[in-house]
Amino acid sequence: MNVTGKTSLHVSVRIARSVEDVYAYASDPAHLPAWAQGLGGSIEKIDGQWVAESSPMGRVVVAFAPDNELGVLDHDVTLPSGETVYNPVRVIADGEGSEVVFTLRRRPEMSDEDLRRDAGMVAADLARLKALTEVA
Q: Which H/E stretch holds residue 39?
């Protein structure tokens, strides 16, 4: 995959569950440790903010878009450096099922290899989301 010059990649998975079911599960920050391993093995609400103390990046704060009927799962991840990374995510209808699309944006310091690695981690996270929601 040659990603030089690209500003974003779209990583997606099709899930044999309705948009409503997938959105209900994925929009609950308490479920993040089960499927979004890039954020670590635990998350808790502290002073009104969702905080992952043990992420591979260190302590991060995750803020989701408000609940909505459009399947918008956009979220900001504030890194230990104070930098905030915006992550656009959508759950969209796909026949009787749904598709989850994560737009991975290249940050200025990212190499092609960094972007490929992150895309692989996002794909693995989405595969876990698929497995968890299709079993439920």
A: none
Q: Which two tokens stand for residue 132?
A: 């968890």
Q: Which strand ranges, in their side-by-side order, compose the sheet holding 44-46? A: 44-46, 49-55, 58-64, 75-78, 84-87
* The pairing of beta strand 58-64 with beta strand 89-94: unpaired
- Indicate if the alpha-carbon torsion angle 38, 113, 82, 65 is positive or negative: negative
SS3 19: helix
**Tokens (6 digits) for 96:** 């009787």
In angstroms, the CA 63 to CA 29 distance is 9
Which residues sit opposite 60 in a β-bridge? 52
Confidence label for 129 from pLDDT (cuts 50, 70 and 90)? very high
Q: Give the strand pairing for 84-87 and 58-64.
A: unpaired
Report pTM: 0.88
CA dihedral 4, 112, 130, 45 (to 10 degrees): -120
What letter represents residue 42's amino acid? S
